[in-house]
Design goal:
The chain is α+β, with helices and mostly antiparallel strands. The protein has 11 helices and 5 strands; from the N terminus they run H-E-E-E-E-E-H-H-H-H-H-H-H-H-H-H. It is 53% helix and 11% strand.
């Protein structure tokens, strides 16, 4: 591993995370490779160099009441071959990681997690899998979809399932009580879920349900926060949203695309 590159990325990230109340980076054991962690009493970030994949990875997770990190969630990954890389390559990686932790969604997640812990609320990370498991309690047949996803794809394709399975399933539901429970669940998931879960609730599920009885019953039972957000989210249906400007890919990415899988 390129120690100079690792230390540069580590220190650059700390310059930002220090402002957000995170600790100094410290080494921890990760089976994938060398790693450092920055943490508060509620949230942690990590930089790890995956030896097998020759990649720098930025991760995040919640911290439990014992101060232990939970399951890491990958936020960004960059291929890095120290034999061909130059300084501007690891500078580009550091800048991308900084963009991630400076993002308003990640900052909001950190602040909300701190707030929940301070108030003695559940510290568990309400993520897409948590959302899907709760949804299966309302729609038992949905368990079959989850099992099929794991068997066929090895994991659940959350965005695809929201669009192609969950939205149509809810739209076809004609039972008012079931739709009311669904609205309450969606409201809870949006209010306390992580960034991915909130996005799945609005863009993944609700924006793929057509105007009809189901959406009428749902909106009547939304919590205040989701009700407010949904009005704006619904207006984006069918609109052509200008994509975010693509960053110029550093040489390390080009190398990754050109590198043979097996030598």
């Amino acid at each position: 591993m390129d120690i100079t590159a690792f230390n540069y990325i580590r220190d650059e990230l700390y310059g930002e995370l220090k402002k957000q109340g995170f600790s100094e980076p410290y080494d921890y054991e990760d089976e994938k490779g060398p790693a450092v962690m920055y943490r508060t009493d509620a949230v942690a970030y990590s930089i790890c160099f995956y030896k097998d994949k020759k990649s720098f990875v930025l991760q995040s997770t919640n911290v439990n009441s014992k101060g232990e990190p939970g399951t890491w969630r990958q936020l960004s990954q960059w291929y890095y071959d120290e034999k061909t890389a130059i300084r501007e390559d690891y500078e580009s990686i550091a800048n991308d990681f900084l963009d991630v932790v400076r993002g308003p969604q990640n900052i909001a997640f950190v602040q909300n997690t701190k707030k929940r812990k301070k108030n003695g609320e559940d510290e568990s990370n309400i993520d897409p899998l948590f959302f899907f498991n709760r949804l299966a309690n309302i729609y038992p047949e949905f368990k079959d979809t989850m099992n099929e996803e794991r068997i066929v794809f090895g994991q659940i394709r959350f965005a695809t399932v929201c669009r192609n399975v969950i939205a149509p399933m809810i739209e076809k539901c004609e039972d008012a009580e079931t739709l009311k429970k669904t609205a309450e669940l969606l409201s809870y998931m949006y209010k306390d879920g992580d960034v991915d879960t909130r996005s799945l609730v609005t863009a993944g599920v609700l924006n793929n349900i057509g105007d009809g009885n189901a959406i009428k019953v749902l909106t009547e039972n939304f919590g205040d926060e989701l009700k407010k957000v949904y009005k704006h989210s619904r207006k984006l249906i069918g609109k052509n949203i200008k994509p975010e400007k693509v960053k110029k890919s550093p040489k390390v990415v080009a190398n990754a695309l050109e590198a043979p899988k097996n030598k």
